[in-house]
Backbone:
């Protein structure tokens, strides 16, 4: 009997240890399950975070594309402004050259006006029209005293091979209307 009691005691100790080991194993399995569930949850959170990162990267790429397009438009705008400024500079230079030419022409006109004023000041008229200076000018002579104007018949072509009689023109010779045989005018 004594051996049976020792064996029973050992079996009981072994059973207690097995129960404790089973309890520890169950607790460990439960902890592993909890850890696995937490890992699954963390993996889901990581997947969601990675999805957000991918979406953010797409948005950043879109923004970079928009910034690049806006930069290109700004570069084109700056090029247009540079072209306009260059044209304005060219026009300004042309205006400056035109202003210089106008100033030069104005000075020349002023000089000529002064010369003309000096020349005109030499001609002084009195109240009755006579003065001490010699009168210069052409004498008008009535046409009847010189010569009658020549009458020339002018024929006009009708287009059908025949000439059409057109109005008669009177031709006046200028030297007959205003004779320039005056001695005073021979210098001119």
Residues:
């Amino acid at each position: 009997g004594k051996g049976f009691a020792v064996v029973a005691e050992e079996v009981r100790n072994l059973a207690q240890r097995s129960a404790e080991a089973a309890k520890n194993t169950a607790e460990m399995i439960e902890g592993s399950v909890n850890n696995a569930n937490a890992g699954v949850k963390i993996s889901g959170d990581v997947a969601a975070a990675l999805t957000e990162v991918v979406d953010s990267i797409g948005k950043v790429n879109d923004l970079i594309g928009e910034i690049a397009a806006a930069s290109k438009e700004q570069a084109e705008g700056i090029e247009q402004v540079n072209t306009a400024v260059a044209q304005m500079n060219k026009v300004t230079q042309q205006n400056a050259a035109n202003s210089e030419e106008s100033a030069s022409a104005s000075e020349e006109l002023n000089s000529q006006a002064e010369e003309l004023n000096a020349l005109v000041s030499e001609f002084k008229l009195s109240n009755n029209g006579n003065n001490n200076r010699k009168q210069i000018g052409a004498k008008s002579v009535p046409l009847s005293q010189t010569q009658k104007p020549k009458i020339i018949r002018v024929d006009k072509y009708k287009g059908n091979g025949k000439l059409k009689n057109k109005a008669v023109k009177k031709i006046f010779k200028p030297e007959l209307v205003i004779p320039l045989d005056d001695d005073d005018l021979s210098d001119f």
About this structure: The longest strand covers residues 150-152. The chain has two domains: 1-122, 139-185. The longest helix spans residues 2-121. The mean pLDDT is 78.
